[in-house]
Specification:
The complex is a heterotrimer of chains A (178), B (664) and C (154). Chain A is an alpha/beta fold and 178 residues long. Chain A is built from 5 helices and 7 strands. Chain A has a 5-stranded mixed beta sheet with strand order 5-4-3-6-7. Helices cover 65% and strands 11% of the residues of chain B. Chain B contains 21 helices and 10 strands. In chain B, helix 3 runs antiparallel to helix 6. Chain B is globular, with a radius of gyration of 27 Å. Chain C is an all-alpha fold and 154 residues long. Helix content of chain C is 63%, strand content 0%. Chain C contains 6 helices and no strands. In chain C, helix 2 packs across helix 3. Chain C is elongated, with a radius of gyration of 30 Å. The chains are: A alpha/beta (178), B alpha+beta (664), C mainly alpha (154). Chains B and C meet through helix 13, helix 14, strand 1, strand 3 and strand 9 of B and helix 1, helix 2, helix 5 and helix 6 of C.
């Protein structure tokens, strides 16, 4: 009889979902900011406490905004990749120095190289909240209008760059060309 | 060497499980008694060897054998010996060994206590349990071997997770696993019934006490888990609707439905296929819980280290076990004719609605727990389903259940006139409602509609349960004495009443704590007076304490009420030497009507500390109620009729085994 | 002595760069809403914990944010919207009612109605059942045998 088959059927559906779920990361939080303009802010730059930087200062056909801090171990891991992107591929990277100490951050850049066009200094993490930052490092991809197209949570690698960012950048620049 | 013995005995146990799952089953089909009897021997052997294996692992822990990877990861020379023993089940691999051992223990128990069963029935039951055993022992050996060596050996162990260094966690997992795995017996009975096509009243009488005992273990296990959360997490909460908790709550709900549905099947020989389905579901949910906790598909406070390979293994195992049993069910369930006639207003209907409510509650929790996963799998934006959702949906489902719980025990089988029921219960109904309105006002001078409804429900549950048993004594013949009448009450009846009173007390606890709790988070200077719920809390000092494997700052908190001393509490902030995460150890004064609970925050300066105080009225009633439920289940399972049945069956079997074993 | 110990302890905590659920004093008029809101928000960094209970640094920041928004006169809904605009619905423990959560919110009650209808249909069928064959002949004989044995035991 059909009704005795219902439990087996429901279980089949459940198993399907569980199987798919097995290969998803439940702690990854997709950003609701994708497709929206970057939040507005006005703060000082990292290197010069008297110089004001706002969201309108982020310019170019596309740009990366990289959230980092000296207390963040994974940031150190990805630093070489950022330097590579900036120096070899001329990728414009804006830094968002998140809840950090100004002196140690400047020191870090002198020691490991400075891949950033300029650094936004977010001392108390308030700008980070507007960006929906929940774990440094995070990297945002924005277009010339300041619209966010992609967000990476975790370490940037050349491989991730190729797979996740390059196609999106091609999309952005081809649209901009039209 | 000891670790190798442990591993070797584990492999022997696997071989015995294979023998247990095949030979008796073939024997049952060929009607070969000696083949069937292999089941009992294999079950005993499997238990023996797993026990040796478990002892070996314990030995490695107690002797600090850090050449065993699992020991090195979860123990430490400084760890007190009782935590070294409980560390055996402190992480994934060892807890799995405990799980397998519990399964074998149930198989062993079945082989001992069911000697009265027809040989083919016991053969099938043990074979099914053997199959489950194979699955889990293989899982242990292939993906999670606790005996894996570490070379070179570690000099010192990485210590047990500090969260687990608590008395509650020493006994919580064994109880919980005995409950989870215990449903495998009812499951095996159900599969045996489907295979043989035989399911009569005697079948129910065999399988019912097993289901009840498993339910008792699960109840105690869940209760201990929540007691641990209250004592160890430092937030004064006792239930968080975390996936881990939900994983254990779902089989509990279905298990509760099962023990009620078994009652109908036993007494009225009806709801047969439904009872079978519930038996399958209760154990399937235990397996599902294992999957959810160990695969990492959900984010949970205390899930085990996740590993997709393990997840995949359990999922495949789950698919085989549950998929095949549900297919078998679909194929053979229609042969169980149930025809007992009953009316709309009857005990049968009420137990049916009881089952509907419990299963709907279970599905609600299942869907709520897995909803984030569903959306993620469909590529939709993620969301979280947390306590606000579960309380909003779960409570309205439970309220009708509690109302029914008062009527059910008094209603008669087949049919009962509404007038008669209402006549008996109207006084209790009014009394319950009155108590619901008056009690909160009398104690706290405050109430809300929800509080009044909750207390009324609790009062109703307790009053009706007491009435159900007292009327047997009150309405005795004039010739019977009071004592005689009391002694004639069946133990199953006493068990039911105890469990139902337990639920009432549990609800009282839940409603009072959630309605009238008070808390304060503040910073406290030494000597500063902080008022909460009529009590004055003074943090007098904070001093350093050296524990066996931790350092702590211990606060001394003087609690007074209108000048007279109430308690000295000593909350601690601990930093464990090896794992270094700070732990909050609250100071609690437990009372019948309220707990005072303080936990220490972080130092702000030399003489000012962050400080949390909680006033938790009636919170102990939550666990007292849980204990009563468990006690009730135990009393019910010990009813005389199950024991006399065993003896009677034995005689019947001995005199005429052939008629018993022919199957449809 | 004691001061030194506390100092060492504080140093120890800070060296480990472990943070703690910082206690943030809120004026009594907001306390209840503050507590309630924090229990509705999910910590983004931890395993399944509310912002109220989470020791994570980010949760401390969010607690401050909630407090400041309350002081600026924001409504509860505005605060929850603020959070979900930045972190998605993931941050809300109480899932908002949207097309993709209809099943979640209405499902249980549909299921309940379905279950009760199913039960009542079954009851109707059973109450019209003329033959009360609760035990078949075989079973009766067997049970009788058992009960006789029962009596002998007494």
């Amino acid at each position: 009889m059909i009704r005795f088959l219902i439990p087996a059927f429901l279980f089949l559906v459940l198993t399907g979902f569980l199987f798919v779920g097995l290969y998803k990361d439940p702690s990854l939080i997709p950003s609701p900011l994708i497709g929206k303009p970057i939040p507005s802010f006005a703060t000082s730059t990292l290197r010069d406490p008297n110089k004001v930087i706002t969201d309108r200062d982020i310019q170019g056909d596309y740009a990366l905004i990289n959230v980092w801090a000296t207390w963040c171990a994974a940031c150190k891991q990805e630093h070489a990749a950022l330097v590579y992107l900036s120096e070899k591929l001329q990728v414009p990277i804006y830094g968002l120095n998140y809840k950090d100490d100004r002196a140690s951050a400047i020191n870090w850049l002198q020691q490991y190289g400075d891949p950033y066009v300029v650094n936004i200094f977010d001392e108390n993490g308030r700008i980070g909240i507007d960006f929906g930052v929940y774990g440094a490092p995070e990297t945002f991809l924005v277009d010339s209008d300041g619209i966010i197209h992609h967000k990476l949570v975790g370490v940037m690698t050349p491989d991730i760059w190729e797979k996740q960012f390059v196609p999106k950048i091609q999309q952005i620049t081809s649209v901009a060309a039209k | 060497m000891v670790a190798e013995i442990g591993q070797f005995t584990l492999i022997i146990a696997l071989c015995l499980a294979i023998a247990q799952s095949t030979i008796p089953l073939i024997g049952a089909y060929r009607n070969n008694l000696s083949w069937m009897s292999v089941g009992r021997t294999a079950a005993s052997g499997q238990f023996l060897f797993l026990f040796i294996s478990f002892i070996c692992l314990t030995y490695c822990f107690v002797t600090n054998d850090f050449s065993v990877l699992y020991v090195a990861n979860n123990s430490n020379t400084k760890l007190p010996v009782y935590y070294q023993i409980s560390a055996v089940w402190g992480a994934h691999e060892g807890s799995l060994l405990l799980w397998v051992l519990a399964l074998a223990a149930w198989g062993f128990a079945v082989s001992i206590f069911s000697r009265a069963l027809p040989a083919d029935m016991i053969a099938r039951v043990l074979a099914v349990m053997g199959m489950i055993g194979i699955g889990f022992i293989l899982f242990t050996l292939l993906t999670s071997n606790p005996f894996e060596r570490l070379f070179p050996a570690a000099i010192e162990g990485r210590d047990l997770n500090p969260l687990l260094q608590d008395p509650g966690l020493v006994i919580h997992p064994p109880m919980l696993y005995m409950g989870y795995v215990g449903f495998s017996v009812a499951f095996a009975f159900a599969i045996a019934a489907l295979l043989s096509g035989k399911m009569d009243s005697a079948w129910v009488r065999w399988s019912r006490p097993w289901a009840s005992i498993a339910w008792v273990f699960l109840t105690i296990g869940i209760g201990l888990g929540s007691w641990w959360a209250y004592h160890e997490l430092g937030w004064g909460g006792w239930w968080f609707w975390d996936p881990v908790e939900n994983a254990s709550f779902m089989p509990w709900l279905v298990g509760t439905a099962l023990i009620h549905s078994l009652a109908v099947t036993e007494k009225r020989s009806t709801f047969k296929s439904w009872t079978i389905l519930l038996s399958i579901m209760a154990f399937s949910l235990s397996l599902l819980g294992t999957f959810l906790v160990r695969s990492g598909v959900l984010v949970s406070v205390h899930s085990f280290a996740s590993d997709p390979a393990r997840g995949l293994y359990i999922l495949i195992f789950l698919a085989i076990v549950v998929g095949s049993s549900l297919t078998l069910y679909a194929w053979r369930a229609n042969q169980f004719t149930s025809g007992g006639r009953f009316d709309l207003i009857s005990k049968e209907t009420m137990l049916l609605i009881n089952n509907v409510l419990l299963v709907v509650a279970m599905i609600t929790i299942l869907v709520g727990t897995l909803y984030p996963l569903f959306l993620d799998a469909l590529g939709l934006p993620k969301l979280s389903v947390g306590p606000p959702y579960f309380s909003a949906v779960f409570v309205p489902l439970m309220l009708p259940l509690v109302i029914l719980m008062g009527i059910g025990p008094i209603a008669k089988w087949r049919r009962v006139p509404v007038k008669e029921l209402f006549g008996k219960l109207k006084v209790l109904l009014l009394l319950g409602v009155a108590l619901g309105i008056i009690l909160p006002l009398a104690i706290y001078r405050d109430t809300t509609v929800m509080t009044a409804v909750g207390i009324a429900a609790a009062a109703w549950a307790i009053l009706t349960a007491l009435y159900a048993v007292l009327r047997l004594v009150i309405k005795r013949d004039s010739s019977t004495s009071f004592a005689k009448a009391c002694s004639k009450i069946p133990r199953a009846m006493i068990g039911m009443v105890t469990a139902h009173v337990g639920i009432g007390i549990f609800i009282l606890g839940v409603v009072f704590t959630s309605s009238f709790s008070d808390q304060k988070e503040t910073s406290a200077k030494f000597g500063e007076e902080i008022e909460l719920a009529g009590y004055t809390f003074v943090l007098e000092s904070v001093s350093g304490v050296q524990g066996p494997n931790y350092q702590a700052m211990r606060g001394s908190v003087n609690v007074t009420k209108q000048g007279s001393p109430v308690a000295m509490l000593y909350p601690e902030k601990r930093v464990y030497t090896v794992q270094t995460n700070p732990m909050t150890e609250p100071g609690i004064q437990t009372g019948v009507f309220r707990d005072l609970y303080v936990s220490l925050g972080e130092p702000l300066n030399e003489n000012e500390w962050g400080f949390r105080i909680y006033y938790r009225p009636f919170i102990q009633w939550v666990w007292i109620g849980t204990l009563l439920m468990a006690l009730g289940g135990l009393l019910g399972a010990m009813d005389k009729r199950y024991r006399t049945l065993a003896k009677a069956e034995k005689k019947a079997t001995n005199s005429n085994p052939v008629t018993q074993t022919t199957s449809a | 002595m004691n001061k030194a110990l506390i100092f060492i302890f504080m140093l120890f905590l800070s060296l480990l760069s472990v943070s703690n659920a910082q206690i943030i004093s809120v004026s009594p008029e907001y306390q209840e809403r503050y507590d309630h809101l924090l229990h509705e928000l999910r910590c983004l960094v931890c395993q399944n914990q509310t912002v109220a209970e989470s020791p994570a640094d980010l949760s401390n920041d969010l607690r401050v944010e909630v407090k400041e928004m309350l002081e600026r006169g924001a409504t509860d809904q505005e605060i929850l919207d603020f959070m979900s605009d930045r972190y998605g619905d993931f941050v809300l423990y109480n899932p908002p009612v949207k097309p993709r959560t209809y099943l979640l919110w209405i499902g249980p009650f549909l299921l309940l109605i379905g279950g009760v209808i199913f039960a009542l249909m079954l009851v109707k069928r059973r109450s019209n059942n003329v033959v009360d064959n609760e035990l078949n002949e075989n079973e009766k004989r067997r049970l009788k045998g058992l009960l006789d044995e029962d009596d002998k035991e007494k």
